[in-house]
Amino acid sequence: MRRRKKTDKLLVIITIAVVVFISTTTYWVDLVIPKDIDIESGLSFGKKGSSINLVMFEDFKCKYCKKYANEIFPIIKEKYLDTNIIDYTIIPVAFIYGSKPIANAAIAIYELQQDQFFKFLKIISQKKAKVTTKEDLIEIASSLEGINLEIFEDFLEDEVFNKYLKNNLSYAKKIMPSFEVPTAYINGQKVDIDQILNKIEQTLNHQELTYRMND
Description:
9 helices, five-stranded mixed sheet
């Protein structure tokens, strides 16, 4: 009986060790090996076809996505998007309770007046932003320039982007061994959120050095 208990205990320990090993290996593989990410259906900004492509998976209601939007993205926008240096793609998902109306509104803004998208995102990402109803979203849209409110309201009412968001979520879970948002990929390689700016600079410097050596 004691021998059986020891055997069972050993099997449990081995099983846990295998799970930990697989999880750790998967994590490092995800960081090291670039992925071929389909960006054609994403929300695209910046320089199309740039040698640097930053892909962000985001849920616009996620508090960590809002933190990224408030603290890191403004620097990315100023240094690399407004200067047309990088190709920037957002693949929106909506899995948090109450996030689908916000995501539908954001995509509607992108479709109706793309240059107002980041203004919309900035408003809904503020800590004190009141975004709980469709009326709140309509009020925000009305403060932006060039938005056809009639079409915008139809988009919200019909929730026309729900299928698109569902497909994005399935794709994100397929891409990521451990799904989470926000998640960043630069040229297909996963990058920690707080390392995005450093990685962009490193990639730019490497590309410049390679160009000089080949010139």
